[in-house]
Amino acid sequence: MIKRFAGLTLATLLLSASLPAIAQEAPATAPDTVTVHGDRPGPKYDKRLFGQFAEHLGKGIYSGIWVGTNSKIPNVQGYRSDVIAALKAIKVPLIRWPGGCFADEYHWREGIGPRGKRPVKVNTNWGGVTEDNAFGTHEFMNYAELVGAESYVSGNVGTASPQEMAEWVEYMTSPTASTIANQRRANGRKEPWKLTMFGIGNELWGCGGNMLPDYGADVTRRYSTFLKVPEGQKLLKIASGANVDDYVWTETMMRKAGDQIDGIGAHYYTIPYDWKKKGAATGFDEDAWARTLSKTLRMDALIVGHSKMMDKYDPAKRVALLIDEWGTWYDVEPGTNPGFLYQQNSLRDAMVASLNLDIFARHADRVRGANIAQMVNVLQAMLLTDGARMVKTPTYWVFDLYKDYQDGTVLPIDVQSHYYNKNEWTMKAVSASAVRGTDGAVHVGLTNVDPNKATTVSVKLDGVTGATVSGRILTGTAIDAHNTFDAPETVKPVAFTGATLQGGVLTVAIPAKAIVMLDIK
Ligand code: AHR
Questions:
Q1: Rounded to two decimals, what is the model's pTM?
Q2: pLDDT of 157-169, one tens digit each?
Q3: What is the number of the ligand 1 atom nearest to the C-alpha of 206?
């Protein structure tokens, strides 16, 4: 039962249980209040919290990113041009590749050298389709450079040796005249790439080898030992993290291998119903809206739980918690390959994104990276493609609205909000976060999850000097409003004129089911 109220703390639950129902159903006109503490700057909102996950899965890489140099689809050296431009526009800071489950069966040597000579394999995790290895190390590392993103490569712990992993890192990073570095040069890349993060396997508790926590931690220690980069370079070593609320995994990894790593992952997907029947991406009812948003709010409690385990061994917070995989997971679109995880993306997904980006702000001292799953054509994607056509999803637009948070300073906030209720689902109607951007402006993100009622939010700006407010709003006419290839601009931000600033207080009139980003200068 508690699980159903994932958006609430236990204290709130107890309190609300003792209040008459009317207390949770304040009229929409009751002012909700947000206080932004500009005078108490918090941690950095790491740009890596906007990271993306790109796996060899369905059309995530092939046709989504890579069309090949002979394609009629406009491309730059084989990478589709529209996707590059769209990703650059939201300043994608980090890309995690090649998996996912794919990573622990991936042998990097099969993805280098002349493309026509690379072995053709079977993608055993995702649809059993052939994988011709056309997209390999050069294609990925060059792509990250082209987009302007840092690279996060996940190694193969499940089916490869520590030597294979160490040699991959050498191939990518060595400036020497070693045989392996020269092989990279012979394959077309003279200078080493900048490799930012390296994942020591993926989901070692599951598709990465079905390891138990102690064994997983031991293996992580062992593999980590051999991940070496040249003098002057820093490689962040990331341990495969826990599944959802497996705090034993995090505790064991930190206790046994915490001194060998710089970060530990955690994976949490928002699934409206259950793994058997996850629910449709569009055409859903308000119960599905409310249950999805309520379930995604569980992220907060999960971060608190994993952080508690990490604090035991690392109170100084040297090791980062990375939400390596997050986002919605629905039933695939009818008629598509079930192994390709292709789903539409609606205003509900936009809400999932903004709620999570707000949660990350609350925990930015420990959560210093996250990769939404996945970047193109898979799960909660930024972009969908169909042949030469591409659409930007509502989730893309949230990443666009929030992009000025990147590397800014989190400003603590207090949120007093009435509650939105639907059936057994209850949550604060207003979610918010605030960041002082590197541009000096204060950016305040406000989400009204209530699909039926507008609200007025009074935002008190303590210690924030600013004379002007401007903003953008993302909303739609229906809870499942979405963009299609024929109507690609149904859900798109527009200028927001519902905010006024007077005497250090912003009064913001937010329509139902809307996300607003305000810039105070
Ligand atoms: O994102 C799809 C899959 O979900 C990933 O391959 C795996 O890590 C997770 O279970």
A1: 0.93
A2: 999 999 999 999 9
A3: 10
